[in-house]
């Protein structure tokens, strides 16, 4: 069966008849949930089951559940977390263990609802110019620190039966603009990028899934990374990432073409999957057509990634909460 090279979303709490027909035809690789898709635990479980039933397989369902500002699930369905950067600062030398416990609990919440992927860890290296939209979502400003913490976050997800999505490759930390609204340009020389920003992703190149960044690295190309064959080749060759790569949302304003044009450009550049969100059914249909079907290499990467989607390891929830509370000095939640 041909699988569409897309990750798409739904308009509401249940699928419409038109969406069901479209998803059956387009057969996207997976789906992503937003706050508008969430009302109650049973409703989310039913929606996940409905999405999978529509495409006829146990497809990937992902979400943005970093904690802090970027958190689609909210109380009472999920814990309310401080920002990742604040969490790291509060935990101090115990940050790796504290982040592991935080995201192990997040993975438990997601898995219980039928969500088997999360768009984390954020491995972007914090810099003095990091835009506020990303700043407190970062984990730190050194290659060693961010590598260690992102690895802990990824392992927490894997232990919880949830596939992590490493973002934003090959590094968004030097962007001074919000790629949701504008196209950031990074003028930093290539040797510094390689030694700093790119090094974190190289250290994590064994993770199953990754997401691109919508920004221009002037030392490599004049095109945004998501649609740059040069940057995508560098991610594969030099960073050594051989996992499944999805674009960041191609509806973001950093990309200048139509959604269909952006989808086709991302696929030509080397993205295995196109992520497209918050659009009409007509636009989703156009993007699915432009993105086409997953190719043989993408299907192999998908098989390898999905093979890491295992049953959760046993977790003593109360024990994990108590340990995290102790590590954080009682300052765990907002």
Q: Can you offer a commentary on this structure?
A:
- The chain has helices spanning 17-26, 41-55, 84-91, 95-113, 132-135, 143-159, 190-195, 197-203, 229-237, 259-269, 281-291, 296-306, 317-327, and strands at residues 4-8, 28-33, 60-63, 65-67, 70-71, 117-118, 163-169, 185-186, 209-212, 216-217, 244-246, 274-275.
- The chain has 334 residues and is of the alpha/beta class.
- The protein has a single domain (4-327), classed as Glycoside hydrolase, family 3, N-terminal domain (TIM Barrel, Alpha-Beta Barrel), CATH 3.20.20.
- A 4-stranded parallel sheet has the order 3-2-1-12. Strands 6-7-9-11 form a 4-stranded parallel sheet.
- Helix 2 links the parallel strand 2 (28-33) and strand 3.
Keywords:
13 helices, alpha/beta, 4-stranded parallel β-sheet, 334 residues, globular, TIM Barrel, 42% helix
**SS field, number of helical segments:** 13
CATH homology-level superfamily: Glycoside hydrolase, family 3, N-terminal domain
Say how many strands there are. Answer: 12
Helix content: 40-55%
From the 3D coordinates, which CATH architecture would you assign?
A: Alpha-Beta Barrel
What is this structure's SSE topology?
Elements: E1 4-8, H1 17-26, E2 28-33, H2 41-55, E3 60-63, E4 65-67, E5 70-71, H3 84-91, H4 95-113, E6 117-118, H5 132-135, H6 143-159, E7 163-169, E8 185-186, H7 190-195, H8 197-203, E9 209-212, E10 216-217, H9 229-237, E11 244-246, H10 259-269, E12 274-275, H11 281-291, H12 296-306, H13 317-327
Helix pairs in contact: 1-11, 3-4, 4-6, 4-13, 6-8, 10-11
């Amino acid at each position: 069966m041909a699988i569409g090279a897309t990750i798409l979303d739904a308009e509401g709490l249940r699928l419409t008849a038109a969406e069901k027909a479209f998803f059956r035809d387009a057969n996207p690789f997976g789906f992503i949930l937003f706050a508008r898709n969430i009302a109650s635990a049973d409703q989310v479980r039913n929606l996940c089951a409905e999405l999978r039933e529509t495409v006829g397989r146990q497809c990937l369902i992902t979400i943005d559940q970093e904690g802090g500002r970027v958190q689609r699930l909210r109380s009472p369905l999920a814990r309310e977390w401080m920002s990742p950067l604040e969490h790291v600062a509060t935990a101090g030398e115990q940050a790796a263990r504290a982040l592991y416990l935080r995201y192990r609990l997040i993975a438990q919440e997601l898995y219980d609802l039928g969500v088997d992927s999360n768009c984390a860890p954020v491995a972007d290296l914090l810099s003095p110019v990091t835009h506020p939209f990303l700043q407190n979502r970062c984990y730190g400003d050194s290659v060693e620190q961010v590598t260690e913490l992102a690895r802990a976050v990824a392992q927490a997800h894997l232990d919880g039966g949830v596939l992590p999505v490493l973002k934003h490759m090959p590094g968004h930390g030097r962007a001074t603009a919000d790629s949701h609204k504008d196209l950031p340009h990074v003028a930093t020389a290539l040797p510094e990028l390689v030694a700093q920003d790119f090094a974190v992703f190289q250290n994590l190149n064994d993770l199953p899934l990754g997401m691109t960044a919508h920004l221009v690295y002037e030392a490599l190309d004049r095109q945004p990374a998501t649609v740059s064959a040069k940057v995508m080749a560098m991610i594969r060759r030099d960073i050594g990432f051989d996992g499944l790569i999805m674009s960041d949302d191609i509806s973001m304003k950093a990309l200048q073409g139509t959604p269909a044009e952006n989808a086709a450009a991302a696929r030509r550049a080397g993205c295995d999957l196109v992520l497209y969100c918050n659009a009409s059914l007509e636009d989703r249909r156009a993007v699915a057509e432009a993105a086409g079907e997953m190719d043989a290499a993408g299907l192999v990467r998908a098989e390898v990634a999905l093979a890491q989607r295992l049953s959760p390891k046993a977790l003593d929830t109360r024990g994990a909460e108590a340990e995290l509370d102790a590590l954080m000095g009682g300052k765990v939640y907002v």
